[in-house]
Amino acid sequence: MKALVITNLAPISSNLNSGIFIVRRLQKYEKFNVEFDVVSLSFEDNQLVLLIKKLLKKATIDPKPVEEYENIQFKIASIYRNMNSLLKEKFFNGYRITAKKYAVEIEKILKIEDYDLIHAHGMFSIPAGLIAKILADKYDKPFVVSLHGDDINLLMPERRDIYVEVLEKAWTNIFVSNALLEKAKSLGYSGKNGVVIPNGYNNEIFKPLVKKEIRNELKIYKDDYKYVGFVGYLVLVKRADKLGEIFNLIAKECPKTYFIVVGDGPLREEIKKETEGLNIIFTGRISQQEVAKWMNAMDVMVLPSRQEGFGAVVIEAQACGTCVIGSSNGGIPEAIGFPEYVVQEGENFEERFAKKVVEVLVHGYDASKLIERSKEFTWRNIVEREIEVYRKIV
Question: Is Transferase one of the keywords (predicted)?
């Protein structure tokens, strides 16, 4: 069996962890005798587009893709973007034109006839699913689309017609949570060809360590202190704008608390100002191996996101034996798996969230229960379920 994988979620030069969950699953394909080629979708903006983004103070991320990461080889399909093409996308439903351009680029570097199926990851600003449909229609191939979160939660409402068209035509659509599937159905998708398979975690990296030892190694050990942390991109959708408030509320009840913020983003400086005077460390962007160490150092990890496709970071923390307190939004409750650690969205959310964290810090939790549950989400188990989808198609 041979699959063509098309993704706009892949490592880029400025962030090798971008799309790491695509790399991890592809690393397991060999164990199931599945051959594949993977295409990373990219673009190059002209100088005028870059200047306007700068004037609008819009965050720009270097989209330059890498051709190899951890033994996964990426074929690069890239297009040139100018103001005309971007305006067509924004105001004249130009996503089809963009997708056709990518399809042509893929045809230049690969022979589509050689593949048994096409698997697209994502329907983001670069719509991998739409590109897969175009190629599948032309070459009479079955295609699968994996939906990861923001593509449904943020983009489908404004691109409903294209999304429904692609999802209904796919052989199977893989959603990372039931919540995400239900959101797509509320926007017009029938759900008849949808299945739920979450993202997984690397059990060779995320595993339990002795907390006191790892805190000493990280030079943050303080006698009789509790450790509370956050892991993720510091943006509004993660409710990072409320981390300062939540941390201060926790510190008021538990003064001997050390706070850890793993990750980076536009709200970092704001959080720093709001948490002055607390025992807190900001690690910035770090490797997964380092993330696992900091997760192990935590007693509790918080995920108060306003929206989340699934929240694989929850499973990674649980695999380290760390309790996660999360909001009730999106796929977070499914990822956490224990209702007692979920805080319902609503009035006085931050106060209730901090109170739940304090409750867990005071009364503790059964780490072994968390570790045992996480085992069902290893990448081998997750990929086995995805390959079963492939086998049904082929």
Answer: yes
Q: Are 282 and 231 in contact (CB under 8 A)?
A: no
Asked if 29 and 5 count as a contact pair (C-beta separation under 8 A), the reply is: no
Give the 3-state secondary structure of residue 317. Answer: helix
For residue 366, pLDDT over 60 is answered with yes
Query: Of 157, 153, 159, which Cα lies nearest the Cα of 177?
Result: 153
**Dihedral angle at the C-alpha atoms of 333, 337, 339, 344, nearest 10 degrees?**
-10
Domains of the chain from N-terminus onward: 2-200+378-393 (3.40.50.2000), 211-376 (3.40.50.2000)
pLDDT tens-digit readout, 72-123: 999 999 887 665 655 655 655 667 888 999 999 999 999 999 999 999 999 8
What pLDDT is stored for residue 49 in this prediction?
A: 56
Q: What's this model's pTM, rounded to 2 decimal places?
A: 0.89
Q: Strand 72-81 relative to strand 68-69: parallel, antiparallel, unpaired?
A: antiparallel
How far apart are the C-alpha atoms of 297 and 313, rounded to whole Å?
15
What single letter denotes the amino acid at residue 378?
A: T
User: Residue 89 has which token pair?
Assistant: 């996308």
- The whole-angstrom separation of Cα 119 and Cα 203 is 25
Q: What number of CA atoms fall less than 13 Å from residue 384's CA on the CB side?
A: 6
Question: 59 pLDDT exceeds 80?
Answer: no
Contact by Cβ (8 Å): 306, 343: no
Rounded-to-integer distance, Cα 218 and Cα 294, Å: 8
C-alpha distances (whole Å) from 273 to each of 88, 110, 230 are 41, 51, 17
